[in-house]
Amino acid sequence: MSSVFGYFIKLIHLLLILFVILTPFLSDSPIILLLHFTTCLTLLAHWYANNDACFLTLLEKKIFNRTDDTSFIKSIVNTVYIIDDQKIKSFVSYTTILLSAISFSKLFPIFKEIYKTGDYTLLLKI
């Protein structure tokens, strides 16, 4: 049963990564972009507060009884490249900042229009 839960955690992890990477390029929906932007900010704060440790990775280690220091991202990247863990963390952090900036740049004109008109329903356009 725990292995099923462990694979479910991996699936959530993968879906979260895909959401963070793909949303700025595939969505123009203001509410989705706002969700993406706040998710990125929350992730960055979470990593900073937890010394770059991801809750999902820690939970996965506990479920599979792993003691190694392999992160989820490192397990994906190291199948192709051997990269230092600190370089991966820096790359992921900077990429997350860049992706959140892309979402914010798409949101900014909408926020400007909301400020002018006071029409908050503009966020709900799909």
- The parts where pLDDT drops under 50 for at least 5 residues are none
Main sheet?
A: none
Helix content: over 70%
* Individual helix count: 5
Structural class: mainly alpha
- DSSP strand tally: 0
Radius of gyration: 17 Å
Average pLDDT rating: 84
What would you call the shape?
Answer: elongated
The H/E string reads HHHHH
Total of domains = 1
End-to-end Cα distance, whole Å, is 39 Å
- Residue fraction in strands: under 5%
What does this structure look like?
By secondary structure, the chain is mostly helical. The chain has one domain (2-124). The chain has five helices and no strands. It has helices spanning 2-26, 30-49, 55-63, 72-77, 85-117. Helix 1 (2-26) packs across helix 2 (30-49) and helix 1 packs antiparallel against helix 3. The model has no long low-confidence stretch (mean pLDDT 84).
Can you give keywords for this protein?
126 residues, 5 helices, 0% strand, single chain, mainly alpha
Secondary-structure topology with pairs:
Blueprint: H1 2-26, H2 30-49, H3 55-63, H4 72-77, H5 85-117
Q: Would you kindly provide a brief summary of this structure?
A:
The protein has helices at 2-26, 30-49, 55-63, 72-77, 85-117. With 126 residues, the protein is an all-alpha fold.
